[in-house]
Amino acid sequence: MYKMMHCKSHPLQRTYKFRLYPNSEQSEKLHHALGACRWLYNKMVEKINKEGLQTRNDLNYFLTELKESEKWLYSHHSKMLQMVSTQVDGAQKSLIQLRKKGHKTGSLRFARYLEYNTFVYNQSGFKIENGLLHLSKIDRIKLMLHRDMPQNAQIKQVTITKSKSGKWYACVTADIDVILPKIRLSKSVGIDVGIKNFAYDSDGYHTPNPLNLQKMLRPLRRVQKKIARRQKGSQNRKKAVRLYQIIHERIRNKRMDFLHQISTQYAKKYDVVFAERLQKLNMVKNHRLARSILDSGWGTFTNLLDYKCMLVEVPARNTTFDCSRCANAVPKSLAVRTHRCDRCGLILDRDHNAAINILKKGLEIFGISYQSNIPQGLREITPVEISTRSRKQEATSFNEW
Predict the structure, then answer these.
(1) Which of 5, 91, 222, 253 is most buried as measured by Cβ atoms within 10 A of its Cβ?
(2) Which pLDDT band holds residue 378 (cuts at 50, 70, 90)?
(3) pLDDT digit string (tens) for 29-67?
(4) Burial code of 317-326, b = ≥16 C-beta within 10 A, e = fewer?
(5) Cα within 13 Å of Cα(145), Cβ side
């Protein structure tokens, strides 16, 4: 029997994404706010490129000076404009870090009309009430609350985003108190991700890869031909570009829906998930597989697992070659889909064999030897033990436990 553990409440920051449905007047105000932030961003970038490094306080003083000469800035919420200086300061620091690492970088670039699509309300100027989002100096906008937020949630920030297809979204960041679940290593699984089968786990279950982009290549080619035939700057070309963006958004939505479903399925069934630490940037150098690898969304899948359950990444070395029964090395090409061991006679799907090896490597981190049936007497562990003994340096709230 498992020992009962005291469940404690811990603070956690979570972001909820909701769809906005503004009317024509509200949409115009949102576009004006977006345009003001873009104009201010470009002004600050221009100042940095001329005068050199600017601190966040320097940028805020510059904003105060701009308000004296540009009175129309007073028609926008002050915190929204101040968050632009935070954004510019972050971009400036990122360039400095890249230079320290030896990368060749230029100066900060100006934000284009079609590329700048986000503004932020931080700490004040917003309120959610009766299915409406109140934004200071904009309006009360209809909000589709498709899921409930915890009653103890303290909203800290609201990020307004416009998608490529013209849809508006609100990303609500809130601090909530959660009760940590009990973690059982007996409820653990190893997952091998791939192209033919998106996920093959150590229990023998596999999920085919939908490859959403591959299915939509024909309509994408058709729309791209339309764009190429249209005259630049014409309304017909803008319509074709908008249709192209809508198709890509649908592909992304289908991919995210699939990834959320399968990650939720594993999170509900298992407490600990072991996965390979893949070098995806190196893998996409194979141009025959690059599109399928990026279309699969392996990185997004592991990110979703990381916050839905306990994810532990293990080295990917020889998980496909080694026999999961006798550890004999059985080299095989990508075309060979069946693992056949010459030493012990094991015949298994290559992805299933890799998933078992991933589970064995993960259990070895905790000093547990793999068995076909994990005994029920395994002890319970806390998230602290997992995060400290895991080989992955997780930048999540688990580090604080």
Answers:
(1) 91
(2) very low
(3) 999 999 999 999 999 999 999 988 888 999 999 999 999
(4) eebbbbbbbe
(5) 11
- Kindly compute the dihedral angle of the four CA atoms of residues 365, 259, 209, 374, in this order, to the nearest 10 degrees: 30
Joined tokens for residue 90: 């972050």
Closest CA to 320 of 272, 356, 285, 266: 356
Decide the pairing of beta strands 132-135 and 139-144.
antiparallel
Question: C-alpha distances in angstroms, 338 versus 62, 292, 305, 349, 358?
Answer: 65, 21, 28, 5, 17
The region, left, alpha or beta by phi > 0 then psi within -120 to 50, assigned to residue 194 is beta
Q: Give the separation between CA 115 and CA 120, rounded to whole angstroms.
A: 16
What's the Cα-to-Cα distance from 361 to each of 86, 202, 203, rounded to whole Å?
42, 12, 15
Q: How confident is the model at residue 389 (pLDDT cuts 50, 70, 90)?
A: very low
Residue 320 and residue 221 share a domain: yes
DSSP secondary structure of 336-366? --EEE-TTT--EEEHHHHHHHHHHHHHHHHT
Q: Give the range of the structural domain holding residue 336, as residue numbers without chain letter.
A: 184-400
Nearest to 301 by CA among 287, 292, 291, 311: 311
> Is the CB of residue 193 less than 8 Å from the CB of residue 358?
no
**What's 277's DSSP letter?**
E
Q: What are 147-188's pLDDT values in tens digits?
A: 888 888 899 999 999 998 889 999 999 998 877 777 777 788
Residue 94 in tokens: 């990122």
CA distances from 222 to 129, 214, 242, 250 (A): 44, 14, 14, 16
Question: Residues 151, 222: one domain?
Answer: no
What is the C-alpha separation between 114 and 42, in angstroms, rounded? 14
355 CB contacts (<8 Å, ≥6 apart)?
Answer: 189, 190, 191, 192, 200, 201, 202
Among 150, 178, 206, identify where a domain stops. 178
Structure tokens, 70: 């540009």
Last residue within a domain, chosen from 129, 158, 178: 178
In a shared domain, residues 246 and 390? yes
* Judgement on whether residues 254 and 171 belong to the same structural domain of the protein: no
Residue 4 lies in a domain: no
C-alpha radius of gyration, the chain, whole number: 25
- State the DSSP H helix or E strand holding residue 229, giving kind and residue range, or none if neither: helix 217-229
166 and 57 share one domain: yes
pLDDT surpassing 50 at residue 280 = yes
Q: What is the pTM of this model?
A: 0.80
